[in-house]
Design goal:
Helices cover 77% and strands 0% of the residues. The chain is an all-alpha fold and 275 residues long. The longest helix has 43 residues.
């Protein structure tokens, strides 16, 4: 009889835990969607073109960079404008996501001090918002493909896989930076320098074959090189990334996410003392 009673109580306890988990998940989802909606409205508030800027910006940058690098450097890259915009938009996704996530805890200090809230939602929201802007910017990529008559191939169905890799990687880096910047504010300024160096260290506007042989291992250790190459394979070259390339991309993403989340979770209780 006692054993039966214990089983009943155990089941009741499990139901209570599940109910609490469901309520917490619904609450977190509501907060997350509200934050994304707020950022979206703030970004395009008082803008005559509004969301159209997410399409025009990569197109205008592509035109400028194509003119510069086609005229002065004369890189012989087939379909250079598409080559350029693919790398540019994907790198911008990572750059915006990590930069905004880095300042998310400091920027949300008033809210963190007033109510009890799952702090991981703030960097997560910034990465999701950057992903949303990237999806909108894909209209610009489609326009370039249409203009140069580059037909899409079934390999483009792998785009969600690539976005999952980049999302995980950006979130991991964002969580790490968000935690560290609370204690060391200089990281906010230093990260801009790192991103600038990272831009030139990634073949966004130059062919990878101009890199000296001794730099090949360094390029192989650059996650964004693999993600940008993956994007060009499925959207420009019409090839299917192999298992090895997928494992490399996944490995970078998982490593960054595990490291970032571990540091963030360990330090988050101290945030309220420093923000």
């Amino acid at each position: 009889m006692g054993g039966l009673l214990g089983q009943v109580r155990s089941k009741e306890g499990n139901w209570e835990l599940m109910s609490v988990f469901k309520e917490q998940t619904k609450r977190d989802w509501f907060i997350l969607t509200s934050l994304v909606s707020k950022d979206f409205k703030l970004k395009y508030r008082r803008s005559a073109l509004g969301v159209l800027w997410s399409v025009l910006n990569p197109l205008l940058m592509m035109v400028v960079l194509t003119a510069v690098f086609s005229t002065f450097f004369r890189f012989q890259i087939e379909n250079f404008p598409l080559y350029l915009i693919l790398g540019q938009t994907l790198f911008t996704l990572m750059s915006d996501a990590t930069s905004q996530a880095m300042s998310s805890i400091i920027g949300s200090a008033p809210l963190i001090k007033k109510i009890r809230i799952n702090k991981v939602l703030f960097p997560l929201e910034k990465v999701l918002f950057s992903l949303l802007n990237f999806v909108i910017s894909l209209i610009a990529v489609a326009a370039v493909m249409l203009f140069f008559q580059i037909a899409p191939t079934p390999n483009l169905l792998l785009l969600p896989v690539l976005l999952l890799y980049v999302f995980m990687f950006s979130l991991g880096i964002g969580l790490l930076l968000a935690a560290l910047s609370v204690f060391f504010r200089d990281i906010i300024h230093l990260w801009g320098v790192v991103l600038t160096a990272w831009t030139y260290a990634t073949p966004l506007f130059y062919p990878v074959d101009i890199i000296p042989e001794w730099m090949a291992p360094i390029m192989s250790a650059n996650p964004m090189y693999h993600y940008v190459t993956y994007f060009r394979q499925i959207a420009l070259w019409g090839t299917t990334p192999g298992l090895a390339e997928n494992l490399i991309c996944l490995g970078f993403a998982v490593f960054a996410l595990v490291l970032g989340y571990a540091v963030f979770r360990r330090q988050q209780k101290k945030f309220i003392l420093y923000v």
